[in-house]
Amino acid sequence: MSLIGRRPISPNAPIQTMAPVTWTTSRFALDLATPKIMGIVNLTPDSFSDGGRHASVDAALRHARQLLDEGAHILDVGAESTRPGAQPVSAQEEWSRLELVLSELVTWGVPISVDTYKPGTMQRALDLGVDVINDVWALRWADTADGLRGLDVIAAHPQCGVCLMHMHGDPATMQISPMTGDVVADVRAFLSDRCRKLTDRGVASSRIVVDCGTGFGKTIEQNFELLHRTPDWSAGSHVLAGWSRKSSIGAVTGREVHDRVTGSVVAAVLSVERGARVVRVHDVAATQDGLAVWAAARGIENA
Questions:
Q1: How confident is the model at residue 5 (pLDDT cuts 50, 70, 90)?
Q2: Range from 37-41, 160-164, 166-170, 193-197 carrying the lowest mean pLDDT
Q3: For residues 282 and 264, what is the distance between their CA atoms, to the nearest angstrom?
Q4: Distance set, CA 53 to CA 28, 45, 77 (Å)
Q5: Cα separation of 25 and 3, whole Å?
Q6: What digits encode the pLDDT tens for the residues 215-263?
Q7: Which helix (H) or strand (E) holds 271?
Q8: pLDDT reading at 17 higher than 70
Q9: Cα separation, 110 vs 299, whole angstroms
Q10: Of 56, 90, 174, 243, which is most buried by a Cβ count within 10 Å?
Q11: What is the per-residue pLDDT for 144?
C-alpha cells in the first residue's frame, strides 16, 4: 500500500537548544527541533474515544493513511485499551489484532510506534521492524510464563526508540485512588529512575522520551499542574504529551469526547510551548494547524 497525497509538513519554528535534539528509533533519527505529531491508531473495540471504529485491518489502514495525509509524523498503534476501568487482554489477543496491521505499516516508510506493555508483544513488533515502543507501564511489566521484562527487550535492541510513561496504580483502579502529595516531584523521581535503569543497561538517552501520564491516576488539578510545570518533571529527557480528548479537557470545557478537539489542540500547543517534543493526538489536521500558528507567532518573537 503506497502513500498518496500526503500533506507537506508545516515549517514549525525550531525549539531553541544548545545540543542536537534527536530521537533515535529503529529506522529513523527523528529531528525533534521541530515538534512531531504522533497520530493514534486504535485497534481496540473499547477505546474511550474511538473504540471499534478502526478495529478491522482495512479500517485501521485507511485511518492510518488519513492521519499521514493530515500531517502525522509518527503512527502509534495500540490493541489494548488503557482507559480508566479497562480490563486487560491476553498477549495472544493483542498480537492477533496487531500483526497484520503492523506488517503492512512497516512497509510505508514512516515511523511506527506500538502502544504496549507486554514484553512478548514488544519483541514481536520489533522483530517486524517497528521503530518505537510506547509503554504506559514504563517497562515494569514481566511476562508470567518466562519472566521476560520490557526492560530486557529494549536493552537488547540496538536502537529502537522508547516512551516511558508514569502511571499511578493500574488502568482498572487508577482513578479510584489517584495520586496524593507532590505530584511533580513524584513523577520526576519515577521517570528519572526508569530512565536510569535503561541507561545503566547501555541504552542511549537519545532513544528515550518520557510522558507524565495525563489522566493515569491523577486528579484534574494534578494533570494541569503537570502540564504547567513540564520542565520540572521531565528529568532532562525529551517529552511526549498525551492530552488528546481526555476527561480533564471535558471537565473544564463541559464537552463530550468527540467535541474536545479545540481543547485538545490548545493542550497540545501549550505542551509544546513548555517543551514537549512529541504530541500524541487523535485530531492530526487540527493539531497541525494549531502548531503552525504557534510556530508563526514564535518566529515573530525570535526575529
A1: very low
A2: 166-170
A3: 9
A4: 29, 8, 14
A5: 21
A6: 999 999 999 999 999 999 997 899 999 999 999 999 999 999 999 999 9
A7: helix 261-273
A8: no
A9: 28
A10: 243
A11: 79
Contact assessment for residue 241 and residue 211, using Cβ atoms and an 8 Å cutoff? yes
Catalytic residue among 246, 260, 277, 298: 246
Spatial CA neighbour of 86 closest among 142, 149, 154, 167: 167
Task: Indicate the helix (H) or strand (E) that contains 236.
Answer: none
CATH of 22-298, one of 3.20.20.20, 3.30.70.890, 3.20.20.70, 3.40.50.150: 3.20.20.20
**Residue with the three cell numbers 522483530:** 127
Active site (annotated) includes residue 277? no
Domain borders along the chain are: 22-298
Could you write out the DSSP letters of every residue in 167-185? Answer: -SS-TTTTTTS---S-HHH
- Alpha-carbon span 286 to 279, nearest angstrom: 12
Q: CA torsion, points 53, 56, 58, 59, in degrees to nearest 10? A: 10
Q: Per the confidence metrics, is the pTM higher than 0.70?
A: yes
The DSSP element (H or E) to which 217 belongs, if any, is none
C-alpha cell at 265: 489542540
- Judged by average pLDDT, the poorest of 42-46, 133-137, 225-229 is 42-46
Quick check: is 246 catalytic? yes
Is 197 exposed, middle or buried, given 0-12, 13-18 or 19+ CB atoms closer than 10 A?
middle
- Runs of H (alpha helix) within 55-212: 57-70, 91-105, 119-128, 150-156, 183-199
